[in-house]
């Protein structure tokens, strides 16, 4: 899906696009960026060999480079400003952007080209402009996406053409403004451009680029997905949706599901973070060839380090022999990250439409697994996906990390209206894709929480794929089904631990959590005109059933 040249259709794109052509800007490639990043003052050159650097034109003895960002090692969502929501402040932000472009163009800068999307019917050209001093982040952007070089540029040349302009990303981590101490991100999604100002964290560049790619996909009747997708044997693909820390990557990237898969049940991973589902042509495409993963579970001299391209916000130590080794396990700080290859497991760039979607929720009112038997309720539970933020992933007040939050479809990077996503997922479910809800945290009320171990979640996915779970109606939650053979599949104490009760305290808690979802979606409808009652009514009906149980006439 190649993009094509278009005259800028907004002042935002005109400012950003013009910046690429200043005399201070030169096009760059991965070789130059690696050399510059290796000399960047704050970057550490380790003695850990990079995985197959020659595919990027780098020398075979290229080493993993580590960059550390200072005090902020996660995304800063509050810095984001959408052009379509600026209203009377538009002129103020245009002035700020103009000044930012001027000051960036007064310094030497680099222009890197890349490709987003790994299917010939969805390949979008993208451009990143940053100061020379930000070479490491530009190098990582090239590792994360597909840099503009053979063989990928040849595939792009033959890809499907659509009526969309290229993605433009302008990033200046050295920008500052007294009114925006946490930085500023300006997004014009209709013109496929973004300015990332005063933010060092690589994830801002990655997610900013994906935000625009997802939006382009939605305009092509695709479903924008922040999640993971895989195939097991010859079964239809399975997609899981959740924020960082929900188990999304652990479930997607597991090759054996904690030993519950048989050798013949071969896993093929598509991606664990970003993909699009084409509703008309029945394919799912990954947007990135690499993985940007947390390193909290990577031990010292872990064998998996040999699959790394790069790392951020982790420690480095020097051994007696003079070698400089990576120190992960989030010892230095929370949210240590790496860029690594999918070659560490069997993988593919695309697959068919998913046969099942799983909303990963950290909602203790829900048991480990439920099946949704209504299309509109399936959308409602995704639009009101309830979870807890992973520690360190976002730059937020520590107190906020303790609160449950609702993040529709686990995608905080969506910039198109929520109702658009709702209608796209409704189309998906009407095509026959099944919907499930997995609670990956704990079950019960606050004084009696029972942990849900990762191994149980993985075994549940195994049995879902095999189709061995037998379902029964959950009478207290109209529209959801729960396992009736849980103890046979998941252990004799499954029902004792996780079977929902009819005790009034639990039912009141369940009702309260339903009401949280109803309130959230109702506010979207009434205050933002960004929701439809058809996706609220199933939750209201479920709450009414609980009311009848608690307060019979």
Structural overview:
Helices cover 28% and strands 26% of the residues. The chain is an alpha+beta fold and 553 residues long. The protein has 3 domains: 11-41 and 69-220, Phosphoenolpyruvate Carboxykinase, domain 1; 223-289 and 349-500, Phosphoenolpyruvate Carboxykinase, domain 3 (Alpha-Beta Complex), CATH 3.90.228; 507-550.
List keywords for this structure.
single chain, 553 residues, alpha+beta, Phosphoenolpyruvate Carboxykinase, domain 1, Phosphoenolpyruvate Carboxykinase, domain 3, 3 domains, eleven-stranded mixed sheet, eight-stranded mixed sheet, 14 helices, 28% helix, globular
Question: What can be said about this structure in brief?
Answer:
This protein has 3 domains: 11-41 and 69-220, Phosphoenolpyruvate Carboxykinase, domain 1 (3-Layer(aba) Sandwich); 223-289 and 349-500, Phosphoenolpyruvate Carboxykinase, domain 3 (Alpha-Beta Complex); 507-550.
């Amino acid at each position: 899906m190649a993009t094509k040249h278009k005259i800028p259709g907004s002042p935002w794109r005109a400012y950003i696009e013009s910046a690429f052509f200043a005399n201070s800007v030169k096009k760059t490639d991965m070789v130059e960026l690696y050399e510059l990043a290796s000399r960047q003052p704050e970057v550490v050159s380790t003695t850990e060999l990079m995985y197959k650097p020659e595919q990027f034109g780098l020398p075979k003895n290229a080493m993993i480079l580590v960059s550390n960002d200072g005090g902020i090692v996660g995304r800063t969502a509050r810095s984001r400003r959408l052009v379509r929501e600026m209203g009377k402040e538009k002129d103020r932000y245009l002035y700020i952007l103009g000044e930012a472009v001027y000051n960036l163009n007064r310094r030497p800068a680099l222009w890197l080209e890349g490709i987003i999307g790994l299917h010939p019917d969805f390949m979008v050209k993208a451009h990143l402009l940053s100061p020379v001093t930000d070479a490491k982040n530009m190098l990582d952007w090239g590792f994360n996406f597909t840099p503009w070089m053979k063989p990928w540029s040849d595939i792009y040349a033959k890809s499907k053409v659509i009526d969309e302009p290229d993605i433009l990303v302008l990033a200046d981590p050295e920008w500052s403004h007294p009114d925006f101490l946490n930085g500023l991100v300006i997004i014009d999604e209709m013109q496929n451009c973004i300015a990332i100002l005063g933010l060092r964290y690589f994830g801002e560049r990655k997610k900013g680029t994906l935000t625009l790619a997802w939006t382009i996909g939605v305009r092509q009747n695709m479903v924008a997905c922040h999640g993971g997708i895989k195939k097991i044997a010859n079964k239809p693909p399975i997609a899981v949706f959740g924020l960082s820390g929900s188990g999304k990557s652990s479930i997607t990237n597991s090759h054996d599901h904690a030993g519950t898969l048989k050798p013949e049940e071969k896993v093929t991973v598509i991606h664990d973070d970003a993909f699009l589902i084409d509703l008309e042509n029945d394919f799912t495409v990954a947007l990135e060839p690499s993985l940007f993963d947390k390193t909290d579970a990577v031990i010292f001299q872990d064998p998996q380090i040999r699959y790394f391209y790069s790392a951020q916000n982790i420690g480095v130590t020097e051994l007696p022999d003079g070698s400089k080794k990576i120190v992960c396990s989030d010892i230095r700080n929370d949210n240590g990250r790496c860029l690594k290859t999918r070659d560490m497991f069997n993988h593919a760039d695309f697959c068919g439409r998913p046969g099942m979607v799983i909303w990963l929720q950290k909602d203790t009112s829900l048991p480990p697994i439920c099946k949704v038997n209504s299309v509109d309720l399936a959308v409602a539970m995704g639009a009101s996906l309830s979870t807890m933020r992973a520690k360190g992933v976002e730059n937020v007040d520590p107190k906020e990390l303790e609160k449950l939050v609702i993040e529709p479809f686990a995608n905080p990077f969506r910039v198109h209206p929520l109702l658009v996503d709702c209608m796209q997922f409704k189309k998906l479910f009407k095509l026959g894709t099944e919907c499930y809800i997995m609670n990956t945290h704990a079950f019960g009320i606050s004084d009696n929480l029972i942990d849900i171990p990762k191994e149980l979640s993985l075994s549940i996915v195994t049995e879902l794929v095999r189709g061995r779970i037998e379902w029964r109606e959950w009478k207290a939650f109209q529209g959801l089904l729960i396992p009736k053979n849980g103890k046979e599949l998941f252990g004799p104490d499954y029902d004792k631990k996780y079977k929902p009760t009819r005790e009034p305290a639990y039912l009141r808690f369940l009702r309260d959590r339903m009401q949280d979802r109803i309130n959230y979606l109702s506010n979207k409808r009434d205050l933002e005109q960004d929701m439809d009652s058809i996706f609220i009514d199933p939750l209201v009906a479920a709450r009414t059933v609980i009311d009848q149980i608690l307060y019979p006439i």
